């Protein structure tokens, strides 16, 4: 009788561990569960393929304009001019510059498309990115001008964007 109880408890423990594993696995593959806001722009990637630093900034308001490489290319090829911001969540310079860029965009009522080069590392070569952050203005499918690094202020971003987009 004692052995049956012992084996029953072991079986129950195994079932609980399996249930917890299945629950955790299902949670990590649900994009909506990665962020409180449900923001998930990496539609061409499975949630479990994202790096931890990217997941950490999903709810950060400064990083809410992310696109996939295909979406970025479509935007670049349009006839309208567009700024593309190449950044990485592991880049300390990006962490300092992105809030300044957001302030500049608010001041000039502008928009920017963001591409996370940590998740899409082919962008380094495709767009000749040498450092992050890099802000590039494209028009008619061609690069017009770029700003590499942190200009140190929202005014620096504003001056660059207004001068280039004219």
Give a written overview of the molecule.
There is one protein chain. The chain is α+β, with helices and mostly antiparallel strands and 166 residues long. The protein has 2 domains: 1-30; 47-165, Glutaredoxin. The protein is built from 6 helices and 4 strands, in the order αααβαβαββα. It has a 4-stranded mixed β-sheet with strand order 2-1-3-4, with helices on both faces. The longest helix is centred in the N-terminal third of the chain and has 27 residues, at 2-28. The radius of gyration is 22 Å and the shape is elongated. It starts with a helix and ends with a helix.
CATH superfamily caption of the largest domain: Glutaredoxin
The span between the termini is 86 Å
Number of helices: 6
Percent of residues in β-strands? 5-15%
Residues in helices, as a percent range: 40-55%
Overall shape: it is elongated
CATH structural class of the largest domain: Alpha Beta
Whole-angstrom Rg: 22 Å
> What's the main sheet like?
4 strands, mixed
Structural class from helices and strands?
alpha+beta
What strand order characterises the main sheet? 2-1-3-4
Count the strands?
4
Mean pLDDT over all positions? 88
* Number of structural units classed as domains: 2
Give helix and strand order, one letter per element, not per position. Answer: HHHEHEHEEH
CATH architecture of the largest domain: 3-Layer(aba) Sandwich
Q: What is the third-level CATH name, the topology of the largest domain?
A: Glutaredoxin
Q: Which residue ranges are poorly predicted, with pLDDT under 50 across at least 5 consecutive positions?
A: none
Transmembrane segments: 6-24
Keywords: Disulfide bond, Membrane, Redox-active center, Transmembrane, Transmembrane helix
InterPro entries: Thioredoxin-like_sf, Thioredoxin_domain
Region (Disordered): 28-53
